Amino acid sequence: MRLNIPLTGAPEVDAVREVIESGYLTQGAKTAAFEDAVRGYTAARHAAAVSSATTGLHLALVALGVQPGDEVVIPGFSFPATANAVIQQGATPVFVDIDEATFNLDPALLDAAVTDRTRAIMPVHAFGLCADMDAINAVAARHDLPVLEDAACALGGTYGGRHAGTLGTAGVYSFHPRKIITTAEGGMITTDDDELAKRIAVLRAHGAVRGELYMEFVEAGFNYRLSDVHAAIGLAQMTRIDDIVSGRRRAASELTSRVSGIEGVQVPTEPAGTAHTFQSYVVLLDDRIDRDEVIRRMRTRDIETTLGTYGMHLQPYFRERFGIPDEALPHTTRAHHQALTLPLYPQLTEDDMDAIADALRLSIEESTTR
Ligand SMILES: *Cc1c(COP(=O)(O)O)cnc(C)c1O
Known about the structure:
Elements: H1 10-22, H2 29-42, E1 46-50, H3 53-63, E2 71-75, H4 81-88, E3 92-96, H5 110-113, E4 118-121, H6 133-143, E5 148-150, E6 158-159, E7 162-163, E8 170-174, E9 187-191, H7 194-204, E10 208-210, E11 215-217, H8 228-238, H9 241-259, E12 265-266, E13 274-275, E14 281-285, H10 291-300, E15 306-307, H11 316-322, H12 330-338, E16 339-342, H13 350-365
Parallel strand pairs: 2-3, 2-4, 5-8
Antiparallel strand pairs: 1-9, 6-7, 6-13, 8-9, 10-11, 12-14, 14-16, 15-16
The protein binds pyridoxal-5'-phosphate.
């Protein structure tokens, strides 16, 4: 059993064939239609498709004016692309510890992480659960800082009835096959800020502005476009998004009812006023349980599991460059070692979920020190 299987089929195949047969392959009408679909779904004012969430985060940071030497505050627990985007701009990621119940940035620690070099705050919606955006936006407003949401896993997630990715200054979704919808590779930046949207549009395509007959280059921009081949897949995926999100949420609640009774397992929470996408279904294991041994035992039972995500300060590049001690980020460190991702996707059957729960119970028994 795999961790995730994207929901794709004939509509996606037909959409790709149509683009290829049209002879117009890169960013064009399909990309515009895909952006419209995401804008309509999320109620964002602007949406710009990009080649990945990583390039989208980088592009958004540049457009927000983050410069070499600046600091960007991010949670310590995330896929390292979150920090890499900051580093690619020559800026320094400042890691803030998380709340172990939600795996999200602990807003009580945010204010102390802001310095006179901070240029942006970049919360992550861990596994599709929105971070505590009211508290984060309040700190950002006090320091007059923009908030860039890493909403890579959170398309379809909500907070106070509003969509993830529309809660700060700008947001970025990922369309990698492990995420909510897929374009194989791809991402999208959303914002309500007209000026920011204009900068993003120019920087996305070589810093060029179209003149009457040819382009004029007004910035040293990037090529972070999404092709129409990929956008066509995304457009087909958007017709399924309600089924995908509700299917993931239903599967998550059924899985929770099966694993919540297993000793030493903390199941995912959904704070009042939020809707989780369950891009990943992540449990936290007691310290007496050897998480890596659980992953190995689950593998022998033919069930793919993995760590939750990364304590970035524990990865070789970040360890060597920043040398952050484990005690500085205790909850991030613990989540890095004790969080476990279980398979979750709408196509899971009742039998699959029984098998996951049974295998987990046995694997934990075999991996616990008494
Ligand atoms: C997957 C992910 C990314 C990177 O997305 P890509 O589209 O693969 O570049 C960034 N941040 C988080 C939190 C992610 O989960």
